[in-house]
Amino acid sequence: MRTKAVFGMARFGTEVKFTLPADQVAAGRAAFGLTDDDADERKIHFLERLDDWGDPWLFGQQVILRIRCAPDDSGDVTVKLRPARVERLTGRWRPGTEHRADYTVEYDWAREKVLSASVKAEYDSGMGDLLHGPPKKALTHEQQDFLRKCGPGLEQPMRGLRKPGPIAAHRWKNRTAGPVAELRAEQWTWGAGRSFLELSLRCGTDEEATRRRAELAAQIEGHGLKLDDAAVTKTEAVLRDLL
């Protein structure tokens, strides 16, 4: 299990994120040496529905449910709360506690730092059956408990959910760009050629996150790349397109 937080001392790790829009993806991949041959491929679906105003309902409640499938029928299902409320991460869901699944509490730092908490269940096989089965069956009992105890207190959160997707994902890990080591990259492509490229770093302390964020920003600027200035997150943009 990966632990990203120490609750009593209020210390949380940080995932630094920069996003390149569609017209910068090819240049970004070339700049950082990201080729299809050394990428891991995934197909991504979400569990979501529209509310009465035509907006993604769960996303509006700060809940993200994601299914990610590999070509060999392995994959994972993630329940994420973003932003997460620290006061609800108590009892068995206190950060640093042990779980069967991968329980992570950390800051997402794109434009600003936002605390997130997630539970990821991994599978060696059976993702196709899981994807095409009832939405509630996609979550383990542990994930349902996490959503119920730490989430926004929704009644019947799995009712009426659709599975927008697929999003074709290419992922790269442990890249090096100048002084920046352990760089991660992920490209999503969906719909009629919509795409973006996310560059990210995981950092253990605030000081490391601030330093490495500045280093990565300098690398991006040095390559003449322009960041995405959209007001919505990549997940929200995809959901609005696909629902």
What are the defining features of this structure?
single chain; 243 residues; TATA-Binding Protein; 2 domains; nine-stranded mixed barrel; 35% strand
Question: Please, could you describe this protein's structure?
Answer:
By secondary structure, this protein is of the alpha+beta class. It folds into two domains: 6-39 and 166-242, TATA-Binding Protein (2-Layer Sandwich); 45-150, no CATH class. The chain is 23% helix and 35% strand. It has six helices and ten strands. It has a nine-stranded mixed beta barrel with strand order 2-6-7-5-4-3-8-9-10, surrounded by four helices. Strand 4 and strand 5 (75-81) form a beta hairpin. The radius of gyration is 18 Å and the shape is globular. The two termini are 33 Å apart. The model is unreliable at 1-10 (pLDDT under 50).
Distance between the termini: 33 Å
Q: Kindly state the mean pLDDT as a whole number? A: 93
The CATH architecture of the largest domain can be given as 2-Layer Sandwich
Question: What percentage of amino acids are in beta strands?
Answer: 25-35%
Helices and strands: which structural class? alpha+beta
The count of β-strands is 10
The largest β sheet comes out as: 9 strands, mixed, barrel
**Multimeric status of the protein:** single chain
Helix content percent band? 10-25%
pLDDT < 50 stretches:
1-10
The secondary-structure element order is EEHEHEEEEHHEEEHH
Number of helices: 6
As laid out across the biggest beta sheet, the strand order is 2-6-7-5-4-3-8-9-10
